[in-house]
């Protein structure tokens, strides 16, 4: 394999080029970082897992990490908005029941 920065021949298992010091990413690492929507769904439905994946994968797979983090943020916001709407609906029903009004 050859270094993409300086062109020097390097070992296939090397993480860094000995000639210029640049890190060498293998093609298999790049193919894993697809940034698919599945990471976003995982973060949305399990926000804690989304935040953990974002923190762990941020350096090695930035596209996947970004999708998991965005999914987690959207999941938290949706949960808070849903809870507020349920409380408002609950208290509105109590208000109508308490005042004797009917639907």
Spell out the helices and strands N to C: HHHH
- Quaternary state reads single chain
Q: How many strands in all?
A: 0
Individual helix count: 4
The Rg value, from CA coordinates, equals 24 Å
Gap between N and C termini: 74 Å
* Shape field: rod-shaped
Structural class designation: mainly alpha
Average predicted confidence as pLDDT: 86
Low-confidence stretches: none
> What percentage of residues falls in helices of 4 or more residues?
55-70%
Largest sheet: none
Strand content: under 5%
Protein model, in words:
α2 packs across α3, α2 runs parallel beside α4 and α3 runs antiparallel to α4 (62-99). The model has no long low-confidence stretch (mean pLDDT 86). The protein has helices at 27-32, 37-45, 47-57, 62-99. It has 103 residues and is mainly alpha-helical.
Task: Break the fold down into its secondary structure elements and pairings.
Blueprint: H1 27-32, H2 37-45, H3 47-57, H4 62-99
Helix pairs in contact: 2-3, 2-4, 3-4
Task: List the defining traits of the structure above.
mainly alpha, 103 residues, 4 helices
Outline of the structure:
With 103 residues, the protein is mainly alpha-helical. Helix content is 62%, strand content 0%.
């Amino acid at each position: 394999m050859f270094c993409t920065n300086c062109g020097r021949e390097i070992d296939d298992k090397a993480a860094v080029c000995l000639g210029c010091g640049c890190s060498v990413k293998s093609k298999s690492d790049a193919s894993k970082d697809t940034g698919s929507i599945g990471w976003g769904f995982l973060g949305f439905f399990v926000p804690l897992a989304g935040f953990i994946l974002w923190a762990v994968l941020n350096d090695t797979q930035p596209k996947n990490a970004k999708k998991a983090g965005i999914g987690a943020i959207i999941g938290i916001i949706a949960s808070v908005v849903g809870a507020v709407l349920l409380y408002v609906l609950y208290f509105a029903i109590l208000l109508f029941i308490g005042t004797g009004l009917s639907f």
